[in-house]
Design goal:
Blueprint (H helix, E strand, L loop, with lengths): L1 H11 L20 E6 L5 E8 L7 E6 L9 E5 L17 E6 L5 E8 L6 E6 L11 E5 L14 E5 L5 E9 L2 H4 L9 E6 L8 E7 L6
Antiparallel strand pairs: 1-4, 1-12, 2-3, 3-7, 3-11, 4-5, 5-8, 6-7, 7-11, 8-9, 10-11
Length: 217
């Protein structure tokens, strides 16, 4: 039984090229657990149970250069206020979703607080067991696909915050170090993540690794 369970897990994990020709695994679906890589910096969207020392004081969200950190996994859910979408339901370009941090079960969130480094709009993780508010809602903007088509895991995308219309963003010039975060800072070397009003390469993302559940048909 353990061998079977491990084989199933391995088959779903890593988004390897073995599935490039499998349409069932090309679409991001509800329940999938994914890592999102920023086009410009190559850093992955990240969080852990460390609170912001300013702004909202909520759980911090950053980006990290490590590709192996399990704290960079986010689970795809239906938007706040909607019933839970069944696992394997395809996510469409233009859909509004939530991204729940796998380890802490808080949702990717934004609001009108200022971020600690750039003074842009703060991004945090918020809620208990995935329950939060409309600040957790993000619109999937696919760069090279029509609204209503499936979110392809290889596609470049932006996440537009539904409440404030700003884009999930990270920039290499806004990095935490001992000077701006202190000698015992747990996020040294990581980049600030914010919501930013203008479109550019710093707010373009793509799925890098994770577990994709096959699309329901």
């Amino acid at each position: 039984m353990k061998v079977i369970a491990f084989s199933l897990f391995f088959a779903l994990f890593a988004l390897s090229s073995a599935y490039d020709s499998e349409n069932d695994f090309s679409t991001v679906t509800c329940g999938s657990s994914i890592k999102l890589k920023n086009r410009a910096s190559g850093f992955r969207l990240h969080s852990h149970d460390v609170k912001w020392g300013s702004g909202s004081g909520q759980q911090s969200v950053t980006s990290t250069g490590s590709k192996d950190d399990p704290n960079s996994l986010w689970v795809v859910h239906a938007k706040h206020g909607d019933p839970m979408c069944p696992r394997g339901t395809p996510v469409k370009c233009g859909d509004t979703i939530r991204l729940m941090h796998s380890a802490t079960r808080a949702n990717l969130h934004s609001h009108l607080f200022r971020s600690p480094l750039s003074q842009q709009q703060e991004v945090s993780a918020f809620g208990v067991e995935g329950e939060g508010d409309t600040g957790d809602n993000w619109i999937v903007d696919c760069l090279n696909a029509q609204p209503g088509s499936n979110w392809d895991r290889k596609s470049a995308i932006r996440f537009r915050h539904a409440d404030t219309r700003k884009y999930l963003h990270t920039h290499a010039s806004h990095k935490f170090d001992r000077g701006n975060c202190g000698f015992t800072c747990p996020i040294i070397g990581q980049q600030e993540v914010t919501a930013f009003g203008q479109k550019n390469d710093d707010n373009v993302w793509a799925v890098a690794e994770g577990i994709i559940f096959p699309s329901l048909k």
